[in-house]
Amino acid sequence: VCGFLRERWDWLQHHRQRFLSEEAPATRRFRDGDPILHLGEELMLRIEPAAHTRALRRGQELHLGLPEVAPEDNSGVLAAVEAWQRREALQLFPERLAYCHGNMRDLCLPLPQLRVRKMRSRWGSCSRAAVITLNLELIRMPLDCIDYVITHELCHLVEFNHSPRFYALQQRFVPDWQARKQRLEACGRQ
């Protein structure tokens, strides 16, 4: 371990400095009328006074009913939006996993366990124990991008790496995976 650190000390110091110099990501702020990305579409946020917190999609609008809060306090709005996104993800992601898994049935893969959580830098992950974890933020992305991430993770059940064989397998099930990946990254920057 010490030899490893000595060999890479300059690299570690460089990246540590870069990390420390980066600004912390801004906290998301939501106001009435703001757009919210959901499945690749923009929904208009409508914040309404209510006795209890609730969220309901009506057409292209997301109606949030919230008890009165101070205008500068965004935590209730943020929590309500995230709770709604989580409910949507917990309903949709298992359906998309079943769909993608069905497309790959000739591989006889086990149906993995699915988890959903917020992740900083990845859209998904797959463990050797056949557990796929999807980033909650995926609920903002178009369906074909969600399917790309799920298929990517399912391919890891066959090839637990990013070798040429892995990419050949992914190409077989998602021939346009590069375009989907680019769209996913572009949407993620919004």
Rounded to an integer in angstroms, the radius of gyration calculated over CA atoms is 20 Å
H-E string: HHEEEEHEEEHHH
Low-confidence region ranges: none
Helical segment count: 6
Number of β-strand runs: 7
Q: Structural class, judged by helices and strands?
A: alpha/beta
Major beta sheet summary: 4 strands, mixed
SSE order and pairing:
Layout: H1 2-7, H2 9-21, E1 35-38, E2 41-49, E3 54-58, E4 61-66, H3 75-103, E5 113-117, E6 124-126, E7 131-135, H4 143-155, H5 164-173, H6 177-189
Parallel strand pairs: 2-4, 5-7
Antiparallel strand pairs: 1-2, 3-4, 6-7
Keywords:
4-stranded mixed β-sheet, 19% strand, alpha/beta, 44% helix, 3-stranded mixed β-sheet, 190 residues
What does this structure look like?
The protein has 190 residues and is an alpha/beta fold. Helices cover 44% and strands 19% of the residues. The chain contains six helices and seven strands; from the N terminus they run ααββββαβββααα. β1 (35-38) and β2 form a beta hairpin. The radius of gyration is 20 Å and the shape is globular.
